[in-house]
Batch of 3 targets.
Target 1
Amino acid sequence: MEIKSVRFLEKEVPHLIFGSLTMAPLQRNMPPEEGGDIIAYALKKGIRWIDTAQMYGSYPHVLRGISQSGIDRKELVISTKSAVKSYAEMNRAIDEAMEEMKLDYIDLFLLHAVRSLEDFGEREEALTALLEAKEQGRIGAVGLSSHSTKSALVLAEDSRIDWYHLMFNIRGTGLTDGTLDEQIQAIEKIKNRGAGFYVMKPLGGGYLKSTAEDALKWVKDHRLVDAVALGMMSREEVDMNIDVFSNRPVSEEIKNRLGTVEKKLFVFEALCIGCGKCGETCEQSAIKVNADKIAEVDKEKCILCGYCVPVCPKFALRII
């Protein structure tokens, strides 16, 4: 694969990361067999970094993908995340990831979706657990993911964090409390102290799909980017992403096939009870309960992250 590489600890891997969110229960809800086979296909094509999370529910997909690929575990980087806050919960989250994916260590474990500096402070115990696990060799590096630019500007200087997973795309789509220029300032701070940065939402949750090639070229070639996580849920997407990252032209056939795939956050109105928990969870302020006591989605703001899906007590939300 003719893709530039990134140094992760002692490993050298292509900087295109297989993101497993889009195939997971939060979004397309693919069976592990189907999703795992796509991961295996990507690994056989040369991808070596898989990104997942406790919240995604994609550990079974990753397990199958690794086992079906025949690729040596030592060649792979596996990153995962958890949003738990206590010391005990984070240790359980690490154990869960290792057990469900049948791994004897996790390369990178991140605090998931840090919403604010206050939220980060509430996770001090969880961070302590990660730092101890790093010392014990259970994880290789400690990271955090966040949609918040204000938080990133401050937390970029926290020397305990080895890697950051932040939203970054050509239009700044999805940034909750800052501009693209401010996000660049945060990433510059990260790079200046020698920490790693890999991109979240390079296509803005699908909203940059019409200019996908240009958007991906912009982010993959950006001077501050170490690696890019891209959600993939078909062999065609794997092939297209590898072509773009290898600076090869994408075939019109693949473009046409992928152009017919659309995603949206769907509200099953018959099930919705208007409790508002989805809106409380949404960092984009993209979902609110209307006058009829039904959750209503603002398509201009929604980035299709799917984080609202598991908090619904009636399972009335689904990305389809």
Note: The chain has two domains: 5-259, 265-319.
Target 2
Amino acid sequence: MLRKILVPVTGRDSDRAVLAMGFTVARIFDAHVEALHVKIDARDAIPMLGDGMSAALIEELMKAAEKDAAADAETARQHFEAARAAAQAAVTQSAPGPGMASGWFKSVTGRIDDIVPAEARLSDLVVFSQGAGRGDNRMAVTLESTLLDSSRPLLLAPDRPPTKIGGTVAIAWNGSAECTRAVAAAMPFLLRAATVHILTAHTSSTAPEEGGRLADYLAWHGIQAGIHVVKPHDEPVGSALVARASELGADFLVMGGYGHSRVREMILGGVTRYIFDHPSLPVLIAH
């Protein structure tokens, strides 16, 4: 069951897509959206300063950074209020909530790539823009560290998120532990879906019978799924999977996220990187 949805916001235009996606899911499950804005510490915003810089100039730079951070927080709050009002969601901070979609805005100060993964661990789902990090390295690191270090599923929202999701769900499946976690996280959506498709890529690392094994498992949950083998040929596997999902009319893709972290350097697998770099339909991804 989905009850708490975390939506990191920045005060930029991308807030609108992730908040709309978050509240779309909240309305399906009568869940709570927590919009989280992380203000950068002014001391982190100032580059390494040379000995020749005066105390007065340092103070001026610090005040300017604090002013910018406060302005971003206020813009993020306005984006949240607009999305909440559009979704007709209640305002509440504390559980168990009003029995309908609800939301709350929270702003804290610190490192966003530390705070968001920590907050995500006590959330059921975390919504990011599928293009998070374009022109913003902090958000790119935050997205990847949340995927790899929070143990929670992410929902990647395209730039223009649909107003309804989950009618037709496609699962990119290869039998891995990451895919297994993604399917488990997506079960609330799968149980509500009118149609479910299983996509297996014809590669040396995926056994031909994998799709059938997942279909048998889903049948025990009352979910009847079609099986489709995708042959990438010369195109990237990620591209082939997304193209087939689109052909089948899927409005929601479920997949495993691959990679590992190495002292804040995130090494992502090829399919995962493709999905991050090519926004299309909403994607639930789990590591």
Note: The chain has two domains: 4-157, 168-286.
Target 3
Amino acid sequence: MSNVAIILLNWNGYEDTIECLESLTGVNYDDFTIYLVDNNSSDDSVERITEYLDRDKFYEYDILPRLNLASYHKKTNINMVLILNDSNNGFAGGNNVVLKYIMDNDVCDYVLLLNNDTIVSEDFITDLEDEFVEEEKTGFVGITHYYYDTHEIQTIGSGLVDTKHGEATAILEDTGLEPDFITGSCIFTTRDVLLDVGLIYEDYFLYWEDVDWSTTAKNKGYKHKTSSKGYVCHKEGASIESLNRIYYHTRNRIVYMKRHTKTSIYYHFLVYIILYVIKEITFNLGRTSHNKIMIKALIHGIMKASKTRQLKWGQKR
């Protein structure tokens, strides 16, 4: 049994993934297994990644389709499992492939979700583990993020949620406040917490999944923390087009608010978000594609939220 299961996702991003894998060979922590899910890439990612693994002496790997994972038994010499997903199910769906396997099989003590567009410091796993204190009801632990190119601070690894405006904001310096969520590009937790909190909600596809998952954990009584010692350098969605960012961020904040706030707060937010979209369109009359995406996201968000179950805010589930 490996102490830490590291989950990586790849979708048409083999160059980022290989650079991330290369950085993981330098960590000062030996007892981990990487579960790399390829989310049905349409390029030659799988071929390029396996070529790298064949050349590299650090990794001993197995490769298998997603449907074979449930019955998979890892040999002790294997430190990398490449899983071929049969569809692109986004951040939540891709991670849940491995999270469900971990829930069903006692293969690790700790679980680490890590973006493939990150480069890690050699001590980051040790520092994450040191920060996790079960006696303090720790849920998720994050770590400092720097921008890949400039090395300026991106976030301390966590953020706060504004439930009036449906905004999730990264924390840039430690203020002593307990964070509302841990940034999805690096989330460290235990298998025990995973068994209690459950899988990531999949209806978002992209963005807000980390906020939702963190909120679910907090409502079960867990506290989130960040480590200030290790770090990751993050390219921050290098392969995600800006219009997709606008669409999923706008749509998904509506779904989050429906799931995690009281009815009165949600309806006040709906008034706000409708007025916000109208304002954005008014000030961007010449940007046809932008405005169409904003309207589409608003409509889809309200429709999806109408079919979304409202959870009991602030209560254990």
Note: The first strand starts at residue 4 and ends at 10.
